[in-house]
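User: Quick one: structure for sequence A, then sequence B.

Assistant: Sequence A:
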Amino acid sequence: MARDRRPRFVVRIQEFLRSYTAGMNSRDLQRLFQRDAANAYAVLTREHAQEPEPKRGLRRLFHRARLAFLGLSYKLSPARRLVFALALLCLLFGFTGDLQVAFDNQKVRILIDFSPFWFTLSFLALVYLLALELVDRIRVRDELEVARELQAALLPRDMPVVPGWSFAHSYRTANEVGGDYYDLMTLQDGRVGLIVGDASGHGMAAGLVMAIANTTLKTALDLDPSPERVAALLNRAIWRIGTRRTFMSIFYAVLDPRTGSLEFVSAGHPYPFIRREDGRIEELGSGGLPLGMRENLPLEARTVELQPGDLLAFYTDGLAEAIDTQGRAFSYERIAQILGEGGAPWVVHDQILASFDLHTRDEPLRDDLTLMVMSRLPPVPVAVTSGATTAPAAVSS
């Protein structure tokens, strides 16, 4: 083995640079100075967004700089705001503290001596503020991680075994805590309750709505699992939260696995697709408002019969409305197209997600994503041996 003849300090510098830049790519840098910068400016200046903006270039530049400064300052606590202002003053002193004006043959000469002391003081104050904000962010991230673990416990890891039916499912969050919700629950009479929902907003607020919906759903199933009754109880629970921006779209259904009868209620949720055994694509659902928009919502249950070989795809709008780098949505038509090709639930499920990942590429999720594909299995052929007829148990996965 050839001996590394590089000096030790060179090796250490190269190792540090590799560690420091691990995971970095050109797309991240481009996003940092384009979309991330625009998002940061929008968040910082949203309290002053109603102020009229000058049309001329220089005045508009000063106007935006003022809004950014005010937005950044007032996002800090009063004590940190004071340190931030002092840091800017020190930076100003570094430029003007040693300003000299001299007259030379009736010409004005301006001599500027940049003071290292004031620049150093300003730099240290800004780094100190940055360290405090990073510590706060780490603490919030730790708390969100705990919330993420608790939320994950509310979602199904493994679907219950339903003879004659097969399921495939997945869930992705745009933030540490998501607002999508889905579950498959075996009822006392042998039927199966199925729900897919999407709470308004993102992050912790949406996660809280999702947790409230989960708790209410478990209670509602014990009282009366019928779709209209469950949806009414969920609507009442979300309405009582009391904010206009809090609502949740759901598709809730009760399946009789023996007959294939699916009774459902849709409240503002994207329509699931059915691929019939002969290849026809149908939509489930009807128009309506999401839960929580009104105290009393008109909710009407419908019933559809599922035949052996039928495929169903349930999803949230984070799948269909995800956009690529050119602003094009993945689209509901694309979901229906892949479903129309048929196949086992896990095959269709993986094909949809593979096409989704190819569509979005390295773009981060902007909304939570839930996908569940289910199918009624064809009947198992009856085996006849020695004059005796035996029927194997139904297969499920």
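Sequence B:
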Amino acid sequence: MSYRLPPLNALRAFESAARHLSFRKAAEELHVTPAAISHQMKILEDQLGVQLFRRLTRAIELTEVGRSFLPKLREGFERFAEAVEKVRSFENTGVLIVSVTPSFAIKWLIPRLYRFVTAHPDIDVRISANMRLIDSRRRDTRNKLDGENELANDADIDIRFGSGKYPRCRVDKLFQVSLTPLCSPRLLEGMRPLKKPQDLRYHSLLHDDTLEVSEGRPDWAMWLKAAGAEEVDTNRGTHFNHSILCNEAAIDGLGVVLGTREIAAHDLAMGRLVAPFDLSLQMELAYYVVSPEATADRPKVALFREWLLAETKHPLVIGQPQPETETAKKN
């Protein structure tokens, strides 16, 4: 449907002049000259074929037609304002798609996420777990992330583990990661307690085979060499193709995993895992917050990015605080 409407500037000028009953005050409000307002009124009256104002010596007044025109026009501008505000608010609210690796989502993001959704209930956060967010040595049709601008599932934000080189994207470093042996606290006791690195020869080594696709990531051989325990056989133990499986096996006491302290922070805080040794090996890769340059400054995207970066500086709080009951408030 096409609308045959007068120029918007003329309509705005009429609404302001009618509200103030003054061309001068309308000019001040719209930052133009009184002559410009008078000119716009002439254009509007000529197009409508009616007289909207009576020009008196030192004042103006609305004609009957002008008085009947004003309420509907004002209602129209209010609708315009509502529509514009709705569009603006959509940038602050609505759906926010966050694509993350499964291990990061389960072990780092989800234990903290309640703080964001509580503070921003109008933002519908949708988490999409995706292993393709790990930079890989492999180059095939399924994995093109290494150095390329390919965001997963049209996500607003990707949390990637890799080099930080993602063209045409805004990239913020979330945190570097380090690797150290992690195990169930049960392994610190018993017939063969884990006291020093050499004691690892009495325990099963758990192998995270995603090590093979991540550049710059130390393995068991590298850690044992740094710890002076090269006599420990690194060929022993169970292999897993996902870090989550490896961590859960360690929690269940199956053996010792070479894991990341940062991702395991929740399990360490809950006492499900312990780090028996002080030695950690720094990785070349890190976790990054990545979003397309074109949308990186949208309010909801910026809010989530700033929250993520702030979370790295705060200690993990275990458990979501419960609302006060009426009884508790009275006490």
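Residues 130 and 162 are 14 Å apart (CA to CA). DSSP finds ten helices and ten strands in the chain.

User: Thanks, that's what I needed.
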